């Protein structure tokens, strides 16, 4: 997605050879026009999948999920990182965060996912694929269909995308970073 790559070139900051900061427009401060364009792009790429729900993990995925759900005119469901006291019957999975270097349990109320759902999973980054694997476990437990994953930025130099594609997941990444070496952002063509 050219518009996204232009934003990354202009506003992205390389923190180190494995970390790209996009907090000025995607996951801390959010550029609403870009976010809505991201949602529309995911709709174009998955429009033939009869999606009736979008799923993500709080917090960084929520804006992406909302823009995508809006484009599809379907509900957004997000996995919570802490079980609310009001949630009793739920699906759970353990997810390891590459960025935070810790594991956490995510949960979704059974009220919001079931065997009739065709679900698109979205997230801001894909590194090793742990978040998507955890969300896939939740969808499997719910009996819902995991129709694909929409990723805003894939770290192509890490194994997540390769692993997911080799395991038959329809994965669409809007920008794939080939390298962050020498403080330079290089995209995969």
From TrEMBL:
**Gene3D superfamilies, per database record:** 3.40.50.2020
- Tell me where the transmembrane regions lie: 54-78
Compartments it resides in: Cytoplasm
Annotated residues for binding of 5-phospho-alpha-D-ribose 1-diphosphate: 127-131
The enzyme class is transferase
Q: Name one Pfam family in it.
A: Pribosyltran
- The record's EC number reads 2.4.2.22
Catalyses: XMP + diphosphate = xanthine + 5-phospho-alpha-D-ribose 1-diphosphate
Binding-site residues, xanthine: 20, 27, 155
Q: Chief location of this protein?
A: cytoplasm
Q: Which pathway does UniProt place it in?
A: Purine metabolism; XMP biosynthesis via salvage pathway; XMP from xanthine: step 1/1
What InterPro entries has UniProt attached to this entry? PRTase-like, PRTase_dom, Pur/Pyrimidine_PRTase, Xanthine_PRibTrfase
Gene Ontology, cellular component aspect: cytoplasm
* Record-annotated Phosphoribosyltransferase domain positions: 32-156
Alphabetically ordered keywords of this record: Cytoplasm, Glycosyltransferase, Membrane, Purine salvage, Transferase, Transmembrane, Transmembrane helix
**Care to name a GO molecular-function term for this sequence?**
xanthine phosphoribosyltransferase activity
A GO biological process of this protein is: purine ribonucleoside salvage
Signal peptide coordinates: none
- Which family is it part of? Belongs to the purine/pyrimidine phosphoribosyltransferase family. Xpt subfamily.
**Function noted in UniProt:** Converts the preformed base xanthine, a product of nucleic acid breakdown, to xanthosine 5'-monophosphate (XMP), so it can be reused for RNA or DNA synthesis.
Instruction: Summarize the subunit comment.
Output: Homodimer.
Q: What is this protein called?
A: Xanthine phosphoribosyltransferase
Q: In the UniProt record, what gene is named as encoding this protein? A: xpt
